[in-house]
Amino acid sequence: MTTNRTVATAADAALWLAVHRGWHVLPLNYGTKRPFGGCVDCRAATTDHTPQTCPCLARADGALCHGVWAATTDPSVIARWAQRWHTSVWAVHLWASGLLAVDLDTRTGPPPRQPLNGLPWPAEEPPPADGLDTYSTLAAQSGGTVGTDTFTTDTPSGGLHLIYSTTRQWKGSHGKVRDGDDTVRTGLGWQIDIKCYGGYVVLPGSTSKTGTYWRSSSTTTPRPMDGWLADALTRTGHDRTPTTPAATTTPTAAVPVVDTQTGPARYAAGALRSACAELAAMEPDTGRNRKLFRSTTRLAGMALAGWIDRAVVEAALTDAARHAGLPAGEIRYVLASGFGRPHPVPDIRSAA
């Protein structure tokens, strides 16, 4: 029996980074470059638990449930994965490893008229050819430089993964334009993808259907991300670092200013108070975002039916979410999403 050296090299690289750098790694499907599916219960759309409360992951025996959240630094688990899955594609779970990746693409197609999100493109600069051009101009506009003196991977398509260390929690994004638009309104800029919380990148040494990933940097140590990059990410709404609760007691929800003499109004006021009390008491990594969204959709339906004022709901849920430690930008996004998907009001005639 011969050994597939490509497969061995990818697994060896992942093991080395886990042991020597403390990176959380996992194998990916060779064809899709996505995490393996895990058990049926954990990949069901109706699963009632989060990765943080998953019984499969709690065993720490190598279950590949919940996608990237199964990543580990355990050498024995990594060795078992290498034997079991025999794949030549491995990845690092960025946020669990204290990392952020700037993924610079080289996709074909003309650039938009305004390639930077929230900043005008310099009149003296030619249009960018790819993500590296866009990122370099953003760095210059922000008073910094790209700086490739960090862990850097060349991708098969000709792009780059610049990996930096970070202590903050950043959400991922894709820098692209919508159909019919000529301005980038998401992420940092055209062909710049940000990956951190819940995100991963393929490790050097891996070989997929598209080709091989190579480390192009002389260092295997990621350096701290530049201040200008952190400022740019904050400006564009990427910072989702939980805030420290300001109070030590659980706040009560704002008292709805509505006619509580009617059954629907009383029901809605009680639902709001209950939702806020539960949300404010939640700890990190217990599903606070999901709780906020579900509460918002439920109360959005009541606001749409006239049972309660929308402004009262938004103010009360915002206060509770802040107390739970959710970032302001995330709270605004979840509230907007929830009010966009209102649930039908319940039938409360039997309780009237």
Instruction: Tell me what portion of residues adopts beta-strand conformation.
Output: 5-15%
Give helix % range.
Answer: 25-40%
Major sheet details: 6 strands, antiparallel
Described by the principal axes of the CA atoms, the overall outline is globular
- What radius of gyration results from the CA coordinates? 23 Å
Average pLDDT number: 86
Low-confidence stretches: 245-260
Q: Can you write the helix and strand succession as a string?
A: HEHHHEEHEEEEEEEEHHHHH
Give me the number of helical elements: 10
SS-derived structural category: alpha+beta
Q: What is the CA-CA span between the terminal residues?
A: 75 Å
Strand order of the largest sheet: 6-7-3-5-4-11
Q: Report the count of strand segments.
A: 11
What does this entry look like structurally?
About 5% of the residues have low confidence. The protein starts with a helix and ends in a 13-residue tail after the last helix. A 6-stranded antiparallel β-sheet has the order 6-7-3-5-4-11, covered by helices on one side. The longest helix is centred in the C-terminal third of the chain and has 18 residues. The protein is 34% helix and 11% strand. The protein is an alpha+beta fold.
